[in-house]
Batch of 2 targets.
Target 1
Amino acid sequence: MNNKSENPAYCGLSQAQLDSHWMPFTGNRQFKQDPRLIVSAEGKYYTDALGRKIFDGLSGLWTCGAGHSRPEITEAIAKQAKELDYSPAFQFGHPKSFELSHRITELMPEGLNRVFFTGSGSESVETALKIARGYWRKKGLPSKTRFIGRSKGYHGVNFGGISVGGIGANRAIYGQGIEAAHLPHTMLPENKFCKGMPTEGAYLAEEIEEMVALYDASNIAAVIVEPLAGSAGVIPPPVGYLKRLRELCTKHNILLIFDEVITAYGRMGSNTGAEEFGAVPDIMTTAKQLTNGVVPMGAVIAKQEIYDTFMEQGGPDYMLELPHGYTYSAHPVACAAALATLDILEKEQLPQRVKGMSPQFQEMLHSLKGTQHITDIRNYGFAGALSIDARDGQPAIRPYEIAMKMWEKGFYVRYGGDTIQLGLPFTTDLSEIDSLVNALGDTLKEVD
Ligand code: PXG
Ligand code: PLP
């Protein structure tokens, strides 16, 4: 045992053990000098290696809205693992995946009723992009291959996702992607400190016309956007923007994909962002909250006409209609976790709870306006973010310092780029929002 492993913060791990894990989206060198280890979780709180209770201000990574260690979910998983731990995903099935797919369609806007299962948000995005290209080929329009994403968009980390994604840092070192172009983002200066959906910016959807003029609709497969951009720092759509995107995609025969990996299953105060913002895509990607984060799973939901096109053009019945799928597609344990999660969301009316409390969250969050370093505040449902002024031209350092100080004070918040992000558990009460916002206010005053 070296000295470090005697420090309780290390949970008995040696430096060699720490070094062996190449951690995702993490400053590995910094983390391994000062690890932040979480050892258990219950409800809205984590316990760290030192036994401190920490409020989960991002619901995991936007995953655990129903709270941690819900017995309904953990028991469903245990039962499922005992009964049927795995069943081959290809050419065979198990009952729970059909139960779950039907259940998901009940939460979807009218017309989205065919569900393809994946293991994550990134896999959901790749699946949606492949379905879009394959669809046009099956329709006899094989040149429709280009995608249109949006600046600041996040669509996971696989090659398709980073190609349509609009976060430069996530693409910079990976070379050639797939053919994509990008709409402008909707974070306009005149919308700063706007509560909920900004009023300005619907006109930015007209940029589709420019893309069509440049590439021609005959070469464009789909537009993919997050209804509310999450990772870039909670950017709600301008009033009318998504409806206009929908109209223009329909006009030009381009598929519209909503990436709802963060927004589906309650966080917006509705079952989906599509429902909340009143625009229906042709394909929707989901993950995260589907299983309350407990088992990895994603789901892609397509309009029936898309599914039917693959079936009709599928050749003889024994042939595959879509050569695509994951070893863990519709994993039985993930299906059990998802069914238990959707039960909780419904029984406890959690989306409705989010909707009911979001005005108070909004007011409390915006009460921080005027505190030093804050250059913008944005929110919708139980998602919120602060933009933070750069220090000496370095946008990322202050959010990092703020998040670390918040951790010391017993609050987990997400820092990324020049933002601090909040994704409250759906069961958060007013006193918890109050403590969180107060701690943020104090912390902003403490950092220089
Ligand atoms: N699409 C969207 C819209 C997402 O938000 C993904 C795809 C990828 O999902 P997976 O499961 O492959 O990570 C996401 C994931 C953050 C944060 O702090 C956001 C995500 C992941 C981790 C952190 O904003 N979004
Ligand atoms: N790589 C190899 C060598 C494989 O055999 C497989 C699956 O069989 C994969 C990658 C894909 O793995 P998954 O289906 O879990 O995405």
Target 2
Amino acid sequence: MTMLTRIPHIIGGKEASDSNRFGPVFNPATGEQTGEVALADASTVERAVSTAEAALPGWRATGLAKRTAIFFKLREIITSRQEELAEVISLEHGKVPSDAAGEIARGLENVEFCAGLLHHMKGEFLEQAASGINVHQTRQPVGVVACITPFNFPAMVPLWMVTAAIAAGNTVILKPSERDPSSANWIVKAFHEAGLPDGVLNVVHGDKDTVEAIIDAPAVKAVSFVGSTPIAQSIYQRATSQGKRCQALGGAKNHMVVMPDADLDAAADAAISAGFGSAGERCMAISVVVPVGDIADELVQKIQDRIGELKVGPGTNPENEMGPVITAQAKERIEGLIAGANDSGATVLVDGREADLPAEGYFVGPTLIDHVKPGMPVYDEEIFGPVLVVSRTDSFDEAVSLINSNRYANGTAVFTRDGRTAREFEFNIEVGMVGINVPIPVPIGAFSFGGWKDSLFGDTHIYGPEAFNFYTRRKVVTQRWPLASESQINLGFPTN
Ligand code: NAD
């Protein structure tokens, strides 16, 4: 029997496992329980929040140049030890290390963006707004910020949030997914090694009760959340009903339109990469392929041929391209959806339940389901597994209206060689992030990330420039320095 690792909170720079409740942590590639994570109760949350509150005055007064240096150092630490972090991710999430390395690279973009915080924190100044009057605007931190993250990017999503929150002078309570909590602890330790003072970034592990205690804590002024749509919506309602600012990113169903003029081999490669990378457990994964016109048979055949060549297995073998899904329950749910597909009128072309897979662990083979339509569970639900569905359309307009009718609007892509079609797609599609011949259009760190409709509750996208709006309050100062002789009483509303 393996010795279970106990995964602690980190509060004020110190590890703490004082909890009556623990949650199991598994290695999804073997199905073996490897650890147990402390699940914080209200008193632990209170301690973490008051620690963050106590650290706030010192941190918001820390010079920006000193903050900047921490981000440069953090970049060095993560870059030089990224294989170690990739292994931590892979052992609890199951994604293969090469995929984990990609997640770290995308997370690092946020560290790099925040190393430019001198620029991002700059305000505005207007000289002589009226006679003898200058106006300037500054950015100040909002206070203690809560960052609640999902299992599928245990390093990248925490880095999306905590980097800008800290750069802007806030202090943070990070509550990662209880299914793969160790990456968050790794990141917090790296921040400390880079010189971040104790108490600025605290990690508190837990579940629903923990999250609710964090959101309700009066000192918590802003909430960043990424996870599934029903939880995102409830978090948004809970936080905003208490007057707190909230950005809550939810689930997705991302469509990839393939036009008749597209290079079908390139489109098939893209569908495979974006559909089955990370076992489909990406909020920007392609889950619906939408061929337009009579290329459908040929495209579907090309995707099917490629599926046969995918190497599925544990990340400990570097040849494997796709790992398991996160839990036994996730595997069961995904397999249930595949099982019902034929009865709902779709055609299962490749059934991942019949693939040659490792006996242990939560593996589901890559699955391809054709002739899928709205109203079928495999279309309506976010499957969040290695399942690509194909919804055939007769025209570009039909493809656009299919996508615009979907409740989710995170990402989408069009594959075409025609600039006019691409332009029409970009203009008319009601989705937050659009790829043109790019299947997973996750914006680089200098832009912000966010979907529309049920993929995001709130009005601010995450990371990049919008993060510095979310994590700061703007203060506008109007000043004049009149001569004493100019002073007079005037009960009218001041005009220029
Ligand atoms: P989840 O909603 O189950 O959990 C997310 C976080 O919320 C976790 O920290 C979890 O502990 C907490 N939580 C769970 N239930 C809760 C409840 N009832 N009340 C309060 N907090 C609760 O999501 P997940 O399964 O960890 O992640 C997968 C989901 O996240 C998918 O739907 C995926 O599309 C979505 N996601 C979206 C984005 C995006 O940018 N839009 C990015 C990554 C993942």
